[in-house]
Design a protein that fits this description.
67% helix, mainly alpha
Length: 112
């Protein structure tokens, strides 16, 4: 991975992390690392990311590896669904129920 690519991926990771209100240390801990420096080096483009680490980071940030590798097409603020997907306090079953309820409410608002 060249310097430019690493820096672009790092910028996207930083943007997503900040949108979710996470510190570098918290994100590092979420992906099983003990130091904020791990994330700092990635965000600055000074460190290559392994495929496995990129997959874990993408999941924790509520995105995909594909989105990390390409120019993002999203609004500035995190969406409700992104925040829900990145929550580690809810079970997958609870996330599914909340998602279904959210979709139900959206459909009701469209009908009005």
């Amino acid at each position: 991975m060249n310097d430019t690519t690493r820096k672009e991926i790092g910028k996207r990771i930083k943007q997503l992390r900040e949108q979710l209100g996470l510190s570098q240390l918290v994100l590092a801990q979420m992906v099983g690392k003990s130091s904020a420096a791990y994330i700092a080096f990635i965000e600055s483009g000074e460190r290559n990311i392994s495929t496995m680490d990129m997959m874990v980071l993408a999941k924790k940030l509520g995105t995909t590896v594909s989105e990390l590798l390409s120019e993002p097409k999203r609004e500035e603020k995190p969406t409700f669904m992104r925040a829900l997907r990145s929550s580690k306090d809810l079970s997958e079953k609870d996330k599914q129920k909340i998602t279904e309820f959210y979709e139900f409410l959206k459909s009701k608002n469209r009908d009005e």
